TrEMBL record:
<keyword id="KW-0406">Ion transport</keyword>
<dbReference type="InterPro" id="IPR051313">
    <property type="entry name" value="Bact_iron-sidero_bind"/>
</dbReference>
<keyword id="KW-0813">Transport</keyword>
<keyword id="KW-0410">Iron transport</keyword>
<dbReference type="Pfam" id="PF01497">
    <property type="entry name" value="Peripla_BP_2"/>
</dbReference>
<comment type="similarity">
    <text>Belongs to the bacterial solute-binding protein 8 family.</text>
</comment>
<dbReference type="GO" id="GO:1901678">
    <property type="term" value="P:iron coordination entity transport"/>
</dbReference>
<keyword id="KW-0732">Signal</keyword>
<keyword id="KW-0408">Iron</keyword>
<dbReference type="InterPro" id="IPR002491">
    <property type="entry name" value="ABC_transptr_periplasmic_BD"/>
</dbReference>
<protein>
    <recommendedName>
        <fullName>Fe/B12 periplasmic-binding domain-containing protein</fullName>
    </recommendedName>
</protein>
<feature type="domain" description="Fe/B12 periplasmic-binding">
    <location>
        <begin position="18"/>
        <end position="295"/>
    </location>
</feature>
<dbReference type="GO" id="GO:0030288">
    <property type="term" value="C:outer membrane-bounded periplasmic space"/>
</dbReference>
Length: 305
């Protein structure tokens, strides 16, 4: 079979046995499809003390199989280590693999990369690509349904989310910009599947050139005023507090009302960014109550103008 990507074609002639995963979510999806990778991208931020995602580690340990090798991704992908693992395929549909790294790797092993932009591949598309690459295409539909059912169950458990508008942004204090995540990004699609509605101010936006989010300056913070709920993430609690102290940030309607979810737990940030089955299951009990509380604050404060 041949799988196309923005970086080239992956030709896979037999079902792979030795699999390496890169980026966010590919390890999760491989496990959900019954394949334990021999190598995974090192989880430097949001991982446990050994640099595995907590939800991935728990799933692998439950199988009784050895934990995979961890591959350095930043600041430079450790291509030599990948090749030393003798993979039959590298799965990276939601990653930042560069054209240069792809060119080196793909000469030696099929690489399933992103079909459009880096880090902007919807989860259903990731599932289709990985299930096909692993020779398990028939499992794609049930796996999608499993994720959608989990999110629909959360929507039923927290009916206050229904119809509330939201924006999910990252406040970059250094550049003075918001990165507004757009439809197709798993963190946005996950919240939408839980009953929230993307705010009109964000709904028509597209990722800025060379990025996986739309960038707008802090001076345009009032554009987010139609969001009943604002969700954001920060590297540290200190960064979160610095943002909250900025008058332009504090003036956003959702922040004023307390309808604001400010994430600074690295593992929860990464789980909420993934949208894949193990991450969703791990994330829901931690994030959904915070969203529901924000929705109640939004309701008490009145709908956004």
């Amino acid at each position: 079979m041949t799988l196309d990507s923005a970086l080239g074609k992956a030709v896979i002639t037999t079902p792979p046995r030795r699999v390496v995963t890169l980026g966010l979510g590919a390890d999760d999806l491989a496990l959900a499809l019954g394949v334990v990778p021999v190598g995974v991208g090192r989880a430097d931020w949001g991982g446990d003390a050994d640099h595995y995602w907590p939800w991935v580690r728990a799933a692998i340990e439950a199988t009784g199989q050895p934990l995979p090798e961890r591959i350095t991704v930043y600041p430079e992908l450790d291509i030599e280590k990948i090749i030393a693992l003798r993979p039959d395929v590298v799965l990276a549909p939601f990653s930042g693999v560069t054209p240069e790294a792809y060119a080196q790797l793909s000469r030696l092993v099929p690489v399933v990369a992103y079909p459009g932009q880096p880090f902007l591949t919807p989860v259903d598309t990731q599932i289709d690509l990985i299930a096909t690459a692993l020779g398990r295409r028939e499992a794609a539909g049930p796996l999608k349904a499993r994720i959608h059912d989990a999110l629909a169950q959360a929507a039923r458990r927290y009916p206050e989310l229904a119809g509330k508008t939201f924006a999910y942004v990252r406040a970059d204090l250094g550049s003075g910009n918001f990165a507004a995540y757009v439809a197709g990004d798993p963190r946005v699609d996950t919240l939408t599947a839980m009953g929230l509605t993307l705010a009109p101010s964000v709904r028509g936006l597209h990722a800025s050139a060379g990025h996986f989010a739309h960038y707008l300056g802090f001076e345009h913070a009032d554009a987010l005023g139609d969001a009943d709920i604002l969700v954001s993430w920060f590297y540290t609690p200190e960064e979160r507090d610095r943002a909250a102290a900025l008058p332009l940030y504090a003036s956003i309607a959702a922040v004023r009302r307390g309808a604001y979810v400010a994430l600074s737990d690295p593992a929860l940030v990464m789980a909420s960014s993934s949208g894949t089955p193990l991450a969703v299951a791990w994330m829901l009990d931690r994030l959904a109550p915070q969203l529901a509380q924000a929705a109640r604050h939004a309701q008490a404060g009145g709908a956004a103008p």
